[in-house]
Every structure is written in structure tokens, then in C-alpha cells.
Specification:
Strand order of the largest sheet: 6-7-8-3-9-10
Number of helices: 8
Helix content: 10-25%
Shape: elongated
Number of strands: 20
Radius of gyration: 25 Å
CATH topology of the largest domain: Rossmann fold
Order of helices and strands: EEEHEEEHHHEHEHEEHHEEEEEEEEEE
Strand content: 35-45%
Largest sheet: 6 strands, mixed
Bound molecules: adenosine-5'-triphosphate, magnesium ion
CATH class of the largest domain: Alpha Beta
Distance between the termini: 53 Å
Number of domains: 2
Amino acid sequence: MEKESIFIKGVNKVFDGEAILKNIDLEIKGGEFFSILGPSGCGKTTLLRILAGFIKADEGVVYLGNKKISDLPANLRPINTIFQKYALFPNLSVYENISFSLRLKNESDEYIEKEVKKMLKMIDLEGYENKKPNNLSGGQQQRVSIARALINKPKVLLLDEPLSALDAKLRQALLIELDNIHEEVGITFVFITHDQQEALSISDRIAVMNKGEILQVGTPAEVYESPDDIFVADFIGENNFIQGKVIKINSEIHATLYSERHGEILFEMDKEVKIGDVVKLSIRPEKIKVTKNFPKKTDERFNILKVYVHEVIYTGFQSKYFVWIGGDENIPMRAFKQHAVYFEDDDTSVKWDEEAYISWNSEDSYLVEVVKGDVNDKG
Ligand SMILES: Nc1ncnc2c1ncn2[C@@H]1O[C@H](COP(=O)(O)OP(=O)(O)OP(=O)(O)O)[C@@H](O)[C@H]1O
Ligand SMILES: [Mg+2]
């Protein structure tokens, strides 16, 4: 059977005179692991509650497949929700918690036992059926919540920051488990998070949200490598931004901007630009190489700037270089070097308090914004 997609069309929500969701249009494909990523207060939970049916949108509709569900009460939607806090019944055992909704439906004991067993196996908690939630770790409790939500065989599982109450290691482990569970049950997961690492590592696609609007929808690689917008570029991962005026169209793909602070910078025209436009580039720190000497193996497509290494921070798997362009502390940039990767140049010898060079291929100067007209170009 074709899995049903969710269609959200023109959803608006106002709270206390403030627009919290602004004309949300979104398609979530059937079976997808879809994340909604955005900062605190941007409207993620509100959107989820509208999908679940806990609140009504002021305008707009929600479809599941070709069925309009936005008029249905929550309990008649084939959708279940997992919240940040586990919300298990503390006085019921694991078994009773998981089987709760089947009991309400008056399913037979045999059916319930069979289904709970399947769930316990899936969440890797066989042998825990008689424990009370209090005697489980946070991660185990959240797994029980997942089982409790899935035992109804919903078509869609909504997860509102289900991992945020857990410590970092446990979060990682449960994230992998969620991925496996998704694989196993094959239904649509809508996962809310403000943690970009979580979203990038697990999702088929991500919607990046800010201030009640969806700014971009794409695969993790798309939103990371090709942000549509300055907010997306800044919110996901770390970034360097350079703003300047286009002074030359070098070729069909390349153009040059001039920034008072960075000088001439070559970039690829991922968007249409013309001479005189003020544009903003983002350059990911891991795309920038730091070398002690003028870099050897580059060509005319590379940007090379002389810098002063202000700080080097070793973080285990990579080192972060904080440099100042031309030694000016007002023009900082960041470059990250992964230790596992072999670099042909002499970057290992770069220390702080030294002069060095940074270089990057113009194809990694990603054009995030074209600001037409006469705008301050002190990027
Ligand atoms: N029932 C309500 N009445 C009034 N305002 C509300 C209500 N629910 C949410 N809001 C407001 O709507 C905005 C968005 O809230 P929402 O809970 O959707 O954000 P969020 O993206 O889930 O944030 P977080 O990451 O902190 O959970 C906030 O400013 C919040 O105060
Ligand atoms: Mg929330």
C-alpha cells in the first residue's frame, strides 16, 4: 500500500495577537523520517500540536493522504505523539504502560501479550515488563513511551524533542535506536528538535523553521551545504560570512566581490548576480585550510588570505583555528581541521600567535544572500 503523505496547507496560528505560525505549507512524505528544526519559541510544538489535533489552526488544512484530518479530534487521527517528558503512568508496570491503549480498546489478552512482546523486543527491554517507570533510566523510560505510542500502529508518529531530557551519550544511543525503530515500523516520523546535529544525523529531510516560518526544506546535505538563507546557514553548523559588492563576473560560474575588510573574494554564482549587487557568502570552517606557508597546491579558483592565528582549540577529532584576517581582530574567521584527514600541506605546524595563510576553493564560498541596491558593504 502506498504510504500516505501529510500535506499542511496555509496553516496560520495566532496566540495573544502574535502570529506564531505564518502560512505554513509543508509536505511530509509517507514513511519519511522528517525533522522540524528551529530555535526555541519558533513554533515547532505549536505546529506539532496542530498535526496531532490538540489545538486548531486559525486557518489552513492538514491532509493525510487524500483525507482531510484537520477537522478530526485528536483521538480519531491515526497519529501518536511522544513528548519531551516521558509521561508514563508511574504506578503501572512497563507491561501495563505499553498495553494501556490496547486494553482501552478491549483487545483480547492473547493479542495484547503478543503485541507487547513484539514491542519489548523492538525497544530492547525484554525482561523489564514488571518494572515500574521509576526504576528505569531516562533512556529506558523514553523507549517505553515509544513502544506505548507504536503499539496502536499509528500511521504517523510525532516526536517532540524526545531526547532532550537525556545526557549526550544516551541521546546518541537512543537516536540510533530511533533510526532502527523507524526502519522497522516503516511509518512516518515527524521529529522535532532544536539540535542541528540530531536533525542532520537522522533525518531523510529537514524543515528549518524560524519565527513561525519554514525557511527551507531539504535533505541534511542540502540544508547544510546549500542553505537558502542566512538564518539557515548560521543556525546549522558553524560558519564564516563575508559580505561585499560584486565587482567582476569572471566566467559563467565565477564572480568576484570586493569587501573593504577581506579584499577581493572569488565565489561561485549559485544565484544570479550582477555587478553592483551586494552579496553575502558563507564559507564553512571545515572547507578552509590553514597553512604556515603560502599554500602550494592551489590554482586561480582559490582564495588565499594572510592571517594571524589568534587561537587553536583542540577538540579531539578536530582542531579549531580562530584567525584574524590581516592580523585585524575585527575580522575574525574560523577554520576547522579534521585530524583523521590527510592534508598535503604543512598545516600541522601552525600554532597560535603566528602568521599563517587560509585558503579555500571558490566553490566553497557559498552565496547565501543577494542584497540588491545600495547597501553597506563592510562585510
Ligand atoms: N497556548 C499558548 N498560548 C499563548 N502562547 C503560546 C501558547 N503556546 C505557545 N505559545 C507561544 O508560541 C510561541 C511558540 O511556542 P512553541 O511551543 O510552538 O515553540 P517551540 O518552537 O516548540 O519552542 P521550544 O523549542 O522552546 O519547545 C512561543 O512564543 C510561545 O510562548
Ligand atoms: Mg517545543
